[in-house]
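**User:** Everyone, produce a chain:

**Assistant:**
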Amino acid sequence: MTFSAEKSLYINGEWHTGIGTKANINPSDISESLGEFSQASKQQVVDAIEAARGAQPQWEHTPLEKKQSVLQAIGDELIARCDELGKLLASEEGKPFAEGRGEIYRAGQFFQYFAAEVLRQMGDLAQSVRPGVSVEVTREALGVVAVISPWNFPTATAAWKIAPALAFGNSVIWKPANLTPASAVALTEIIHRQGLPAGTFNLVLGSGAEVGNTLIHSPDIDGVSFTGSVETGRKVATATAANFVRCQLEMGSKNALVIADDADIDIAVEATIMGSFSGAGQKCTASSRLVVFDSVHDAYVDALIKRMSGLKVGHALSEGVFMGPVVDKNQLDANFDWLDKAKAEGASVGFGGEKLSLEHDGYYMSPTLLLDTDNSWSVNQEEVFAPMAGIIKVKDLDEAIATVNDTRFGLTGGIITQSLRNSAVFKQQAQTGCVMVNLPTAGTDYHVPFGGRKESSFGPREQGQYAKEFYTVIKTTYQRPY
C-alpha cells in the first residue's frame, strides 16, 4: 500500500494537500519509501480547529445508536484488516509483523469497547438539602480535542484517545507523529467512510514546531491529549495552562522489573525478554532496569543471556523475527550514545551492544544487556527508548523497592516472585501507576485505566471508564417543580 501527497491531510471532511511533503522511509530497508506525505500549514491547522468547533455540537447530539454504530464499524474494520494494516504499520515503524498485526487488532478493540460505552452514559440523581428540589448530575462532551500521538504505537495509542473522544461526543483534530503517517492515513480513511458530520474528525500531519505548537497554543480547543517526551509534555502543559485548556499527558518512564530470590527463573527470563526487548525497547512501559537479588543474580543472568542469544533480529516482515530495527537513524545514533555513556559510567556489556549489518540496509541494533550498573547512573535514570536493559544488584526486598522508587518517573513496575508476601508488599509500596506481578512490565488491557505517577503522567487516566474524566465535563442541575 502506498500513498500520494494528494491524500495526506483530512480537514472538514475532505482530503487536502499541504505546504510540502515528507518521505516515509522503511526502517527495515531504507532503500524503500512508503510514499510522500503532505505537511500541514499553520492556516490548515486553524482551519481544522474551526471545522471541529463547527461540527462538535451536531456530533454530540447525534443519536446514541448512530454514534455506537460508527465506533463499532471502525473497530470491526480494523480487526478485519489487521493483517493488511499490520503489515503497513510494521513497514513504517519497524516492529515485527506479529506485533504490528496485534496492535491493529487491539486498536479495533478500543473502538469496539467505546462503542459499548456510548450506550452506558448515565448520570446520577440526588435529593437536595432544600425541600422540593431535585438534583441531576450529568456529563457532557468536553468539546474540541487535540490528539497528539507518538510513533511507537501509532495506531493503538491514537485509538485509545480518539475512540473515547468520539464516544463522549467530542470532535477531534489528530496530529500523529511524522515518522508514521501511513498508519494515520489508513485509520483516517476508515473513519471517513463512516459519514461523520464534516469536521468531526480531522487529520493534520506535520512537525511539532508547526502543527503541534499551533494546536497547543490555540484558545479554540478544549482539551489536549498528548503522549510523548517529558520535555514536550512540559511545553504542552505550559501552553494549555495559559488558555485554561484541559490537558492529559503520558510521558516518559524508567520502569524496573525486580527478580526476587524465590523467582522462577524461566518466568523471569521470559518477562524480561518481552518487557525489555520486544518492540526494540521503544515503549514507555519497557523494563530497562532489572533489579536482581544477589542470590539469584548469576543464574538469572546466565539464563537471560542464553535466551537473548537465540533472538532473531531482522526485517520486520521476515519470518521468525523477534526484533526489528529501531525507528530511524536519529534513534539508532541516540541508542549508541547512551551505550557509550553507560560504559563510561562503569557498565560492562554482558550481551549485544552492536550495530548490525544484515541482508537489508536498516537501523538494526542487537538486544543489549548491561552488567554491574548502579541505579544512580544516567543510563538508569533517563528514558533511553532502546533495546537495552541494565542489571542492578540488591540484597533484599527493601532495597529492591527503594531502587524501584528511586526515579523521577513512575509508570510501571514489576516483580517476579512466588511469595504472596513479596507481591503484597511490592504492590503496596511501588510508586507506579501500573504494577505487574510475574508478568512483563509492558502490556496493558484496554478496559482498565492506564497511567503513571511523578513525571510519567499528568491529568486524568486513559482507557476504560476512567477516560470520561478527561473527555467529559460535569453538569449539576437543580430543579423545583412548579
